[in-house]
């Protein structure tokens, strides 16, 4: 079995009742999905630097990290190539951030193709990846430990924070 570890850092930027999100083309060619700006940490990079870099790449904004909201970990096994399963461990860090400079623009040639502000009340109606739900839950609840208790999903619904798909 192949082992894979992915560490990613995401920003939750809320301003005037709106949430900043990036849009990512769906991996299966389906409808695009909205994601929190952020992404994978490069080898040797600090997660704090990762979130600052990723937000600028995906949105054009310069941010100030104002706090660590929490950390989420997921562990899944996926079918791999040539009959070898992949043991995937994903670790996601969520930071609260505020915009300090730059201008909103779209990423070219990257993992996202658009960035936009969305009213918090309208976010649930968007086609979202589960990290958006988790990031907003951390932002709203602000657990002292930085860790959320798992929330079970009902049959026929998408997994909720604590029981998330690897991204």
What does this structure look like?
This protein is mainly β. The chain has helices at residues 47-59, 130-141; strands spanning 2-12, 14-15, 18-24, 33-35, 38-40, 61-78, 86-102, 114-119. It has a 4-stranded mixed beta sheet. Strand 2 (14-15) and strand 3 (18-24) form a beta hairpin. The longest helix has 13 residues, at 47-59. It is globular.
Q: What overall form do the CA principal axes indicate?
A: globular
Number of helices: 2
Mean pLDDT: 89
Lateral strand order in the biggest sheet: 5-1-7-6
Q: Would you report the number of β strands?
A: 8
User: What is the rounded distance between the termini?
Assistant: 19 Å
The low-confidence parts are 154-167
Helix-strand pattern, N to C? EEEEEHEEEH
Helix content: 10-25%
**Could you describe the largest sheet, including whether it forms a barrel?**
4 strands, mixed
Radius of gyration, taken over Cα atoms and rounded to an integer in Å: 16 Å
Q: Strand-residue fraction?
A: 35-45%
Helix- and strand-based class?
A: mainly beta
């Amino acid at each position: 079995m192949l082992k894979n570890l992915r560490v990613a850092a995401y920003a939750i930027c809320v301003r005037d009742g709106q949430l900043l999100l990036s849009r990512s083309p769906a991996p299966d060619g389906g409808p695009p999905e909205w994601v929190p700006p952020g992404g994978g940490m490069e080898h040797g990079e600090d997660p704090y630097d990762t979130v600052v870099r990723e937000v600028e790449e995906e949105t054009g904004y310069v941010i100030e990290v104002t706090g660590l909201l929490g950390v989420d970990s997921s562990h899944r096994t996926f079918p791999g190539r040539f009959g070898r399963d992949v043991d995937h461990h994903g670790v996601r860090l969520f930071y609260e951030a505020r915009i300090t400079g730059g201008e909103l623009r779209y990423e070219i040639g990257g993992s996202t193709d658009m960035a936009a502000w969305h009213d918090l009340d309208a976010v649930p109606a968007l086609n979202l990846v589960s990290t958006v739900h988790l990031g907003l839950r951390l932002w709203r609840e602000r657990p002292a430990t930085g860790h959320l208790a798992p929330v079970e999903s009902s049959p026929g619904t998408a997994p909720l924070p604590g029981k998330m798909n690897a991204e």
